[in-house]
Design a protein that fits this description.
Elements lengths: L21 E4 L19 H4 L3 E8 L8 H17 L10 H9 L4 E6 L1 H8 L4 E5 L2 E5 L3 E2 L5 H4 L23 E4 L7 H18 L2 H9 L5 E4 L5 H5 L5 E4 L10 E6 L5
Parallel strand pairs: 1-9, 2-3, 7-8
Antiparallel strand pairs: 2-5, 2-6, 4-5, 7-10, 9-10
Length: 264
């Protein structure tokens, strides 16, 4: 059975199909995430639970950095592969950590590595995902204060990437993670947000829809939304990521809409 949030957990806030429209998430590794940006509510069970983070490491070699869109799409697929991996479900060796991570606040942190740093990261258990010119390794969730030494020493900053040419238009028949066109986010921040969007889409799908996506190889695109369509996207019942706002952007900002064909 694919991993997902417990039914007794109030993961979402706001209306939407099957109750999966919005969730507030963070890529800050240490700061508790309030449920409401303007008037935080008292801590709930998720705040009291042990806090975990999903580490992702993107390979950025000085001579050949990946294109920004490749990195964003690869990070999103890496999250899906972690959620779907047999080690993350049932009695798998990562299953307890994944459940504990999903029972608390959902956090993802993207760090960068090159050369020997990357080789040390690859030696740790995890999954390396490639896409275009990007390589991203995702690791099972770890406690906020329990990062492996070879990951803790990696830098969070310095993940500013560019696309050498505008990416092709997204295939309307495939899943698309639409980025807020009015927010300027570093590549690392946007990678974490794309991962959040992919996770929300995964949670919203039925077992059969998840299997179909898996069998197709988890195709997806990450693109900036047309500003004229953004309001319609965020109010149309699709899963929406709202950031906690501790880094780069304002609290409560809608960062990503997860537009999977099965959810339209």
């Amino acid at each position: 059975m694919p991993s997902g949030p417990r039914n007794d957990r109030p993961w979402e806030a706001g209306p939407g199909p099957a109750g999966w429209q919005t969730v507030r998430v963070s890529n800050d590794p240490t700061t508790p995430v309030p449920d409401a940006p303007a008037a935080p509510r008292p801590p709930d069970d998720r705040d009291l639970a042990p806090q975990f983070v999903l580490p992702l490491v993107v390979r950025i070699e000085r001579a050949a950095p990946p294109a920004r869109t490749d990195a964003l799409e690869t990070a999103a697929r890496a999250v899906l592969l972690m959620l779907d991996d047999e080690r993350s479900t049932g009695d798998g060796v990562w299953a307890r950590a994944v459940r504990d991570w999903q029972d608390a606040r959902i956090r993802k942190v993207v760090r960068r590595a090159r050369g020997a740093e990357w080789r040390r990261a690859e030696a740790l258990e995890g999954i390396t995902v490639t896409g275009g010119g990007a390589e991203v390794r995702v690791f099972p969730p770890v406690p906020l204060d329990g990062w492996p030494k070879d990951l803790a020493r990696l830098q969070v900053s310095g993940t500013d990437l560019d696309d050498p040419a505008p990416p092709a238009a997204a295939d309307p028949s495939a899943p698309v993670l639409w980025l807020n066109p009015d927010l300027g986010m570093s590549a690392g921040k946007a990678m974490a947000q794309a991962g959040h969007g992919a996770q929300l889409a995964w949670w919203a799908l039925s077992d059969g829809e998840r299997a179909a996506w898996r069998d197709a190889g988890f195709p997806l695109a990450v693109r900036p939304a047309d500003p004229a369509r953004w309001t319609a996207l965020t109010t149309g019942g699709l899963p929406v990521v709202r950031d906690a706002g501790y880094t780069e952007i304002a609290p409560g900002s809608c960062t990503v809409v997860a537009d999977h064909p099965a959810l339209r």
